[in-house]
Amino acid sequence: MPTQIKLEFDQFIKFHFAIPLMLFLILFSGLEFTQLDLWITRHFYDAELHQWIYKESPLAETILHVGGQYFTYISAAVMVICLLASVRSNSAFHHYRCELVYLLVASISGPIIIVLLKSSTHIYCPWSLTLFGGDKPYVRLFDYVADNLKIGHCFPAAHAGSGFTFISLYFFLMLVKPEYKSYGLYFGLALGIVYGASQQVRGAHFFSHDVFSLAVCWFSSLMIFILFFRKQLK
């Protein structure tokens, strides 16, 4: 049986919404509106050779990028299989039907939001910028954008988001196995950081892109959790 817990609403909102929002705004602003994003990225670009040092790295491109995509697809398939299995009354997952629905919905919500944002923002990948041998201007989130400038399709970071989306495990385990909830958080953070770093070194994203993806995945999982389990919030 899933653990029946009650969560103090004020404390829950404080530690899961207010504090994370403050940390996100500070970190994102520090990266986006200073030279810190550019400073970090310049370490992966050889200005003399005009090339990205790790762009075609087998570890970054094949294992962590392509392989990471397959891992995400397989994980989603496993979630669907577990959810379908939970329909049977004699299934080990039967008592976790609602929690499994939440896990699947929360896990796909972040990446979907990220894809929608990518299709409407004018922020370009580092390897496309004139600063790094490309032909596109360096545009930040709230910069003025000329009418003839095409959509950048680079913000937020989708691959980092496919790792951070596993933060939904934290909220899932909060109800199913509260003593293991931290492991769900650590797993989602670690996977997102590794995926994000693998793209940063290739010149595909700035650090701020990954931070924004983390925020999307965290707050979407949080909002869906509140919708699904508001009775647990007293």
Write up this protein.
With 234 residues, the protein is an all-alpha fold. The protein is built from eight helices and two strands. A two-stranded antiparallel ribbon has the order 1-2. The longest helix is centred in the N-terminal third of the chain and has 28 residues, at 58-85. The protein is globular. The two termini are 21 Å apart.
Strand order of the largest sheet: 1-2
Identify the overall geometry: globular
User: What value does the Rg take, in angstroms?
Assistant: 20 Å
Would you tell me the overall average pLDDT?
Answer: 94
> SS-based structural class?
mainly alpha
Write the H/E string, N to C. HHEEHHHHHH
Largest sheet report: 2 strands, antiparallel
Distance between the termini: 21 Å
Which percent bin holds the helix content?
A: 55-70%
**Fraction in beta strands:** under 5%
Total strand segments: 2
The number of helical elements comes to: 8
The low-confidence parts are none
